Amino acid sequence: MTKIALLGAGGKMGVRLMSNLQPTRFAVSPVEISAEGRARLAEKTGAQCVDMNTALMDADVVVMAVPDRAIGQVAHRIVHDLKPGAAVVMLDAAAPHAGELPERADITYFVTHPCHPPIFNDEIEDAAKTDFFGGIAAKQHIVCALMQGPEEHYALCEEVARAIYAPVMNAHRCTVEQMAILEPALSETVGATLALALRAATDEAVRRGVPYEAAKDFMLGHLNIELAIAFNIFPEGKFSDGALHAISKARPVIFKDDWLERVFAPEAVLQSVKDICNPA
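Request: output the structure for the sequence above.
Response:
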């Protein structure tokens, strides 16, 4: 049986992962340093934590469910305790891409991250419809990268990734650099910023007299069709002439001409992940 050491098991993400790993073929040893976290894990999953040394002893896979800013510190602490051929699975590309990981040639580094349940889906159960984050009931895609290690470890680590993020549809293979482009650049620098801009615009409509529920429903409904058109989910759909005119007038007001290059330039992405791992 494949042995997994789950570090940070009592955190919000760690509890989610432990719940998903329990019904699998993996033997999981959860580790949590805080008393509050250990109590939370026991309450939510019934699992009892073990000490770090016990968990790492003969561990085939180490899953790092710890904050980005702690990944490097924890990795340096445990790297010499891992057996040759062990795989370290990280849940975000920030620390790996920022160069926070210690060098050790005979272990595997693998990175995986959820895409989260898609806006356009076929969910019908209430539990899945309200599982916005994923990993409970709603199906989601994931991305994975084998940063270093033998090719045969990819299949094992993808299996672990599919288990912790279940239920999973597609597992897209990327490089670590590509994952950093996806997050933070694409999903947070652009996606989250524009999501908050959409909320700010909705609030401005309300400030100017539109009832909140009307503004919210109008915005979310229009986003549904606009995103479907933009991403070819609704290939027969087209933006109206009026919409195209509004877009042409709004683009230079809202966006700088070089915004894509500024956001996605390799040095900008690298600086972003370094800032995440080492906040001022």
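The mean pLDDT is 97.
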